[in-house]
Design brief:
Length: 384
């Protein structure tokens, strides 16, 4: 079988996880080389998987050992590596978030367009049947025009997690906290199902952890059609919970920790409200039986599924589950919430690129080196 050779850039816990499945789980893909700024780490992981290990990025990208680069470095390096890869005629699949800023994301998208190469983002939850079923229902208009959205995403983290690396939870090393680290998974699904708002009014704060960035963020959203929404993200809440609601003129869709519920009205809420002669009448609703296509037996899931889809897109033109340009959506929300929170005012979407770049420059200038670091390199136990 024809295979796409991948080079993995950044082989910490996440990158090594990608190497594990590229070794033997994705029939259309193979591992060609690895890169890490830490020379010992690059050599050790390369030896483990029997491929060249590079600690010089230019040598890695010029090696000819692969056709596509899978980027699993800390966030700030995503944009530069992707742009350099595109300029060398390589395809690029990047871990989330696509970048730290909307302006960086713009540059990545433009570089991909100019190169003619494929650009993907590792939003593996899009491959889950439940979210694909929800997306299909919204696209088919089952719940009608959207007029309210809700996202609650809580992914608890200990202080030890933040102390595990000098770059984590700093403006200079990561570019944010919960919004840019844990929340992108659900921010992407939230925008994929409910669309992007036109205005964000947010607050961010550090409530529980000893970090300089936010561990809690919340926002009121306004949409171009007059819809509104609420968004909450934190690493402080137990038990962890992830809820998405999309409410429309013909019904409501709710996903709670991967469980989908849908209700449909018998008529348009707008029409019923204006035409019913009854004082205490209500629009009748019914639960809608949803059809979720089961994952075929033996089919890959999670990160491996996105990588397989990316390889098939290169080899056979299969549509991408998570196109790189759609990675911009979550960054619009992340940058918009941070900008609004710091300014104390509502901000428009698309986010003002220059204003956010200036803010981040100021935040990075005030960023302080961590005084307590207990370095750990571990693949997330939930990585699959």
């Amino acid at each position: 079988m024809e295979k796409v050779r991948f080079g993995v850039a950044g082989v910490g816990g996440m990158g090594e996880g990608h190497c594990n499945y590229l070794r033997d789980r994705v029939p259309e893909a193979s591992l060609g080389a690895v890169y890490d700024v830490n020379a010992e780490r690059a050599q050790a992981v390369g030896d483990k998987f029997g491929v060249p290990g590079y600690h010089n990025l230019e040598a890695f990208l010029n090696s000819g050992a692969f056709e596509a680069v899978l980027i699993a470095t800390p966030h700030y390096f995503h944009a530069d590596i992707a742009v350099q890869a595109f300029r060398r005629g390589l395809h690029a699949l990047t871990e989330k978030p696509i970048s730290v800023t909307v302006s960086q994301a713009d540059g990545m998208i433009e570089a991909a367009r100019q190169s003619g190469k494929l650009f993907g983002i590792m939003y593996q939850m899009r491959a889950e049947p439940v979210y694909q079923a929800a997306r299909k229902l919204v696209q088919e208009g089952v719940i009608g025009e959207v007029y309210r959205t809700l996202l609650i995403t809580g992914w608890y983290r200990t202080q030890a997690y933040y102390d595990s690396g000098g770059w984590r939870a700093t403006w200079a090393g990561e570019g944010g906290g919960v919004l840019i680290n844990q929340a992108p998974h659900y921010l992407d699904l939230f925008a994929w199902l409910g669309g992007l708002p036109s205005q964000i009014q947010a607050k961010t704060r550090t409530r529980l952890h000893d970090i300089e960035v936010e561990d809690e963020a919340f926002a009121l959203l306004e949409y171009a059609n007059g819809a509104h929404g609420y968004l909450y993200a934190s690493t402080t809440e137990v038990p962890s919970e992830n809820v998405i609601e999309v409410c429309g003129d013909r019904g409501k869709l709710k996903i709670t920790d991967g469980h989908l519920e849908v209700w449909q009205t018998e008529t348009s809420v707008r029409d019923f409200t204006q035409t019913s002669p009854e004082m205490w009448a209500g629009v009748k609703t019914r639960p809608l039986e949803t059809h979720i296509n089961p994952r075929p037996e033996g089919a890959l899931k999670d990160h491996a599924a996105i990588t397989q889809n990316f390889a098939r897109a290169i080899l056979h033109g299969e549509p991408l589950i998570a196109p790189g340009e759609e990675g911009l959506w979550a960054i619009e929300l992340i940058n918009g919430m941070i900008l609004s929170g710091k300014q104390g005012n509502p901000v428009s979407v698309p986010v003002d690129r220059a204003a956010y770049d200036q803010l981040l420059t100021e935040l990075k200038a005030s960023s302080k080196p961590k005084t307590r670091i207990q370095a750990q390199t571990q693949t997330d136990p939930n990585f699959r």
